[in-house]
Design brief:
The protein is mostly beta strands. It has one domain (2-399): Beta Barrel (Porin), CATH 2.40.160.100. It has four helices and 23 strands. The strands form three sheets. It has an 18-stranded antiparallel beta barrel. A hairpin with a 4-residue loop joins strand 7 and strand 8.
């Protein structure tokens, strides 16, 4: 609630009224995800098939005048995901730092019920458009990187590849200045405030984007959660292939390198393919270490969500016609031979209404259990994806 009060106090102190803006846009969406998750029967873990439904609405107010843009986005929904499934997700995925100074309650009403009401104040910022550049203050989305799928230099709440709703990147609290350089370059710098503004929860970054001889280059330096990152990337062409390379080195509690390299190719006007290799030295080549490493700063604060070291990620998409598009993507852990496969199709029912159907398949060794070792060692990953249940989903999305 403090976030909302602070925003409207700022709004009032600036003596801004709706009439002062030359353009006011109110838009949003309503989305429904119906998910069927396969049963789990793996040692002591036995969970029946799960049927869940996630409904959300995003309401977006954007106001413009000659030199300011005000933005307020709020999302609320109803989630019928079972408590067992929520516990499983929280166990498999580390609790990540929010990079928000303060926040509203994540849910409305009581928690611990089958039906919960999540809410998210996702954008709350003002941008001052000045002669020298743009200054944005408040909750906003900030991304980094040159790679297509996994960005090594992107540490502020990137999406896990298994996330269903990835339309809007989660907002973080920041003061950011972006200055254009020449026609295609930009100087981007800022301060990000985490919980209570403490240095161990916060970050600062500097990024230079430029274009040389038709190739885009990106250089990044940042300090986050008392870790240091230096990164660079390039997007270019290799003959008829699109090409990208991005790498980042992190030093601090642990030193590690992450890198992504890949190519893409348009087979026809409607068929487009890509393949990316990702190196993740923050992970491990031994599944026995997966559970322990989830507490590392790379996973809790550094945007790392892959547990292995070496990955191959092929993807292909087909625009079947003006209304229907199909895509297939696989993420293969080369160290433990497990795989995550996603297939989805998107169909336009009307100008504002869309339907999506998808299938998630996981392959690999299941979890390992032993009663002959200390209790903290009884559970071990057999592979990164082998213990995940397959699922299918259908989604309806209405935009207004």
């Amino acid at each position: 609630m403090r976030c909302i009060l602070a925003f409207f106090a700022f709004f009032s102190l600036s003596a801004v009224s709706i009439d002062a803006f030359s353009q006011v846009n109110f838009s949003g969406y309503l989305k429904n995800y119906t998910v069927i998750q396969d049963a789990i029967d793996d040692g002591p873990i036995r969970i029946d098939r799960i049927y869940s439904m996630q409904n959300s609405g995003r309401f977006m107010l954007d106001m413009f005048n000659d030199n300011q843009v005000w933005q307020l986005h709020y999302e609320v929904g109803v989630d019928s995901t079972s408590k067992l499934q929520q516990l499983g997700e929280s166990f498999m995925v580390p609790e990540r730092q929010s990079y928000r100074l303060t926040d509203i309650r994540p849910t409305i009403g009581p928690t611990g019920k089958k039906n919960i009401v999540p809410q998210n104040l996702d954008r709350m910022n003002v941008q001052f458009q000045m002669e020298g550049g743009d200054l944005t203050i408040g909750r906003q989305a900030i991304t980094f990187g040159s790679a297509r799928i996994i960005n090594p230099s992107d540490v502020f709440l990137p999406f896990d590849v298994r996330t269903l709703n990835t339309e809007y990147r989660a907002g973080i609290d920041a003061v950011r200045f972006q200055k254009p350089i020449a026609q295609l370059g930009e100087l981007d710098m800022g301060i990000i405030l985490g919980p209570d503004g403490k240095s161990e929860n916060s970050a600062a970054f500097f990024q230079l984007l430029t274009n040389v001889s038709g190739s885009d280059y990106q250089f990044t330096a940042m300090r986050f959660a008392e870790q240091n990152l230096i990164g660079a990337g390039v997007q270019s062409a290799l003959g008829v292939l699109g090409f990208w390379l991005e790498a980042a080195y992190v030093s601090g509690d642990e030193d590690y390198t992450r890198a992504s390299v890949g190519v893409d190719y348009a087979f026809t006007e409607r068929v487009f393919g890509m393949i990316e290799y990702h190196l993740n030295e923050a992970g491990s080549s031994n599944p026995d270490n997966y559970l322990e490493q989830l507490d590392d700063a790379a996973f809790t604060a550094g945007g790392v969500f892959l547990m292995g070291k070496n990955y191959l990620i092929p993807a292909i998409s087909w625009q079947a016609n003006a209304l229907l598009s199909l895509s297939l993507q696989s993420l293969v852990n080369l160290d433990d031979s497990s795989m995550f496969l996603s297939i989805n199709g998107n169909y336009s029912l009307s100008d504002n209404l869309y339907m999506t159907m998808g299938y998630y398949h996981f392959a690999g060794n299941d979890f390992n259990f032993s009663n002959e070792v200390p209790i903290e060692q009884q559970f071990q990953f057999g592979s990164e994806y082998g213990g995940n249940p397959d699922s299918i989903y259908m989604s309806l999305q209405y935009y207004f």
